[in-house]
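Students often ask what a 'structure token' actually looks like in practice. Rather than answer in the abstract, let us consider Redox-sensing transcriptional repressor Rex, a protein of 214 residues. Its sequence is given first.
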Amino acid sequence: MEEKEISQAVIGRLPRYFRYLSELKYAGIERVSSQELSDIMKVTASQIRQDFNNFGGFGQQGYGYNVEFLHNEIGKILGLDRTHHLIIIGAGNLGQALANYVNFERRGFLFRGLFDNNSELHGKKIWGIEVQPMENMEVFVKENNIDIAVLTIPKTEAVTVAEQLVEYGIKGIWNFAHVDLNVPENIQVENVHLSDSLMKLSYNISRFESDNTK
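Now compare that with the structural description of the same chain:
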């Protein structure tokens, strides 16, 4: 049977479902209806049901969803039922901030290495991780089963480093460099453009102000 293609819009909502279900779970709530999720998520109940139907539904008519079961199932869909080993390339302010963010570890994303071409940073420890020179990266990736690389380096360096990571056998790249990476189809890339997000916020502020001055 051919696997159903899931839209990126649905995939984009899954982490939000997981996050809110985590909050419900830790609050001791055992069941939640699509309407209750709708009130929390600010997504229509119909949309929530459609999203979940892509993966089999998860609920029963008139009975709602078991919070722990749904939380676990969405976690599996997101690949959070296994551990991911990450390295960060770029030990500047952003790289250090990411290495220090403990919530990644709670989700199974374990930072194993930190690399930079600035010799003044070599040997410095960030959250217990020692910054290493770039020439150590190939051996480290292969010996430590690294599957995700995080790029927090200038775009002028990102393309070359991404090509190296592909050769080293990396499976995914979380790219904070403001450049599109040309990598093989089997390498998954998630681009994070911080300025784009800020401009979107600016647009929404402007639209809200415009709507309220009419």
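One point worth highlighting: The chain has two domains: 8-77, 84-196. Ask yourself how you might have guessed this from the sequence alone, and why that guess would often be unreliable.
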